[in-house]
Request: fold
Amino acid sequence: GQNIDQPTEMTATEGAIVQINCTYQTSGFNGLFWYQQHAGEAPTFLSYNVLDGLEEKGRFSSFLSRSKGYSYLLLKELQMKDSASYLCAVGYSGAGSYQLTFGKGTKLSVIP
Amino acid sequence: EPEVTQTPSHQVTQMGQEVILRCVPISNHLYFYWYRQILGQKVEFLVSFYNNEISEKSEIFDDQFSVERPDGSNFTLKIRSTKLEDSAMYFCASTTGDGNEQFFGPGTRLTVL
Reply:
């Protein structure tokens, strides 16, 4: 089975840095994705890690350790518009095709 | 920038009725997916589709569900006899290659009364 854990909620201050952690236990791991989801909207892609290490993309960075089943998303210079849910998703190849298994998401509130 | 579109944005139906949710994936994408998200819960994989056939389906995707690509652009999800517990947001997604970033449509909010 697939099990993905991330904190339910976090609060951070505008301009600060926040780290959202994700741990997973899955079979057939083939990449870890981070998506952002504003309330009532579709998930939008933020980052993707398939190898260990840090991937940087502007204000967002994501880290992966496959041996530890661990990833984090780092958001720098927080803005009010960053208030959203952040979804950790593990990609894996099932019997037929690739699919994403999502965590429950971390609701981030950015306060002034 | 190309995007995945879905219609309708909202669908209200009576229990037992059939619904068809429509999606137009990004034109050069080859892999298509349906996900659902019950209010307040996580996004759940339903089915993947490639080369005009189902590649993978989850336990949720039972005999009441079916998918079709009736022409070169549309990708549909049909629920034959809706149940109250089918009420959710349904997202279509597409990608160029299996394992690549998936682009999500805006979703269809299905309410079963």
The first strand of chain B starts at residue 5 and ends at 7.
